[in-house]
Amino acid sequence: MCCDSKRRFLLLYATQKGQAKAIAEEIWQQAGAHGLEADMHCISEMDKYNLETEKDPVVIVISTTGTGDPPDTARKFVKKIQDKTLPPDHFAHLQYGLLGLGDSEYMFFCNGGRTVDRRLQELGAQHFYETGLADDCVGLELVVDPWIDGLWLALKEALQLQEEKEGMSSPVDAVSSSLSSAPHAVNELNLSSKVQNLKLEDEGARGSDVLSQKLDDINLATPASDTEPSLVHSVPPLSQSALNIPALPPEYVEVQLQDIQGENPHLSSLMSEGTTFEVPVTKAVQLTRGDAIKTALLLELEIADTVFDYQPGDAFCVICPNNASEVEELLHFLGLSEKGDNFVCVKVKQDTKKKGAFRPQHVPERSTLKFILTWCLEIRAVPKKAFLRALVECTSDVGEKRRLQELCSRQGASDYTRFIRDSNVCLLDLLHAFPSCKPSLSLLIEHLPKLQARSYSVSSSNLYQPGRLRFVFNVVEFPAGPSRPVSRKGVCTGWLAELVAPLLHPNKNTLDAKEESSSTKKISIFPRPNNAFHLPGDPSVPFIMVGPGTGISPFIGFLQHRQKLREQHTDWEFGETWLFFGCRHQDRDYLFKQLRSFLENGTLTHLKVCFSRGSSTAEVAPPKYVQDILRLYAKEVARVLLKERGYFYVCGDKKHMADDVSDAVVDILRTEMEADKLEAMKILAMLREAKRYLQDVWS
């Protein structure tokens, strides 16, 4: 319920990994100091709000997931508003402001927010505040903070306008007085995700959520020899600046350790995504040689006894635990090494100052301490500034306290980006770097996000191998560095590699080997269908596949499926197929040499392979990368895309490959069409819009 003395606005969030929710909670928390009351709900809770009858301003915070999709929690909402029978004035009464979250590393930046924004506009809704698009690639806070700063004045004006329309004479005193002094509030914001277009002001506090930390409150001795900043050390001017630091987030979780024993919840109870399946791993093959730079593994799962279904091109998610040694290390830092098997009761503090607080849904009310740290919390998550602010209060050393304050301050934004965000620092790294920091378990539950299941592309066809699912991955490595005392493997890939180590058959690089193990190793999975990255519906349509490294994974499923279709339907017409594959060394990481068999039986029409680290004695150096080979076959690529209306698929690394492939296609279109670059880019955009240029990429 909202307080009678404060004016209400509706606050909706749609989150995939918790970031949109955390930002919505920040808005909710600040609202009270501005004479406002935020009526906050997850956008999926459509029984708790009604936009059709909503009279107050609406604020929406929404993230983007997958290949530009709205988050899972927004799917029903988006489906509802996309009803084509809705009239163009359906939301003519609605005033809203929208903050979209995304990552410009991916093609459809902030598309979740853009989709909702565009549809609300089509249905007659009006902006009371400019849309903000925040970029996780450079730091969400660069747009989020000033967007929230300007929100309050915009809300005030929207509410005042509403008062006038309703014919009410009483002024909105509480709102006006609290907002009139907002130092950086603006009526209109033209917010960009690009850092260079955003001017951040550092002079003074930006509202009641900011505290000023005076330098002379701290007696901090700086060694003269330390001229370079680091995770634990700053240099002038930051080390000599007064700091604007966030307000301390209110505590709201209470933890009770119990000596009793019991059963932990089933993993499926932690998932909101639907049905999960526990399936055995029937095969594990190391596809790379031992001296390859990366280790690639192929795993096969037995799904015959489940209702799990998939198409080639789909993805699925693996529910994985945190590393066991890291959990033990964290227990040690918490002073709870002997309490790991004790049951923990988690509930909301009765006297919390956090409005509407509730127990995080990803943490069971009752489970063991180890279960929470192993299966529920993302202990590898990069700490947000609010978490750093809370850790300040747990730190006894004056110098360490000051440095944590700097890292969460507005003045320390660049240090936060460099030493926390870009260095991929996690909680354990911070506890090593700041040994006097002793956080409580309740603080970790409040600030660490949900441990996310990891998504992988399917590398098989149910038609080719009924009851089996295969996938391929590189074992991710994070080397030790200045901010990370030890090297680490990826949370899921490291766990899978350790799990299947007894099954591995090194260098038996074979797709169809018959030997299987009787191992009972099992993992929990759930489907994540891909709405677009599938074979053309018409088998006569030609297509091109570009997949270096493990990016080849879904195309193995494509080719297996196509082979079975050719065997079963000899009277069908099948279009030509191209595959462009690349790796470092021909003898170390050529993942699927059996591609030749697809070539020999006609399933694959053209196979083009390159090796970026190979040595050549040829007078003309061979192409090193897939984009280089594409350019060599420019006429054929243009023919398939333009004349024969074929499909183009790209899978693999976004930053170092997919963008280069996109640039190569633009060059090909420009050259073959004798057009300028802008026209070629428009053609590529049209291919994307028609879902004939499709990407399955990661950063």
TrEMBL record:
Residues 274-536 form the FAD-binding FR-type domain. Forms a multiprotein complex with MMACHC, MMADHC and MTR. It catalyses: 2 cob(II)alamin + A + 2 H2O + 2 H(+) = 2 aquacob(III)alamin + AH2. GO terms for cellular component: cytosol. GO terms for molecular function: [methionine synthase] reductase (NADPH) activity; flavin adenine dinucleotide binding; FMN binding. Its EC number is 1.16.1.8. Keywords: Amino-acid biosynthesis, Cytoplasm, FAD, Flavoprotein, FMN, Methionine biosynthesis, NADP, Oxidoreductase, Phosphoprotein, S-adenosyl-L-methionine. GO terms for biological process: cobalamin metabolic process; folic acid metabolic process; homocysteine metabolic process; methionine biosynthetic process. InterPro entries: CysJ-like_FAD-binding (IPR003097), FAD-bd_FR_type (IPR017927), Flavdoxin-like (IPR001094), Flavodoxin/NO_synth (IPR008254), Flavoprot_Pyr_Nucl_cyt_Rdtase (IPR001709), Flavoprotein-like_sf (IPR029039), FNR_nucleotide-bd (IPR039261), NADPH_Cyt_P450_Rdtase_alpha (IPR023173). Residues 9-152 form the Flavodoxin-like domain. Pfam families: FAD_binding_1, Flavodoxin_1, NAD_binding_1. It is found in: Cytoplasm. SUPFAM superfamilies: Ferredoxin reductase-like, C-terminal NADP-linked domain, Flavoproteins, Riboflavin synthase domain-like. The keyword Iron does not apply. Its main location: cytoplasm. Its cofactor is FMN; FAD. This is Methionine synthase reductase. CDD domains: methionine_synthase_red.
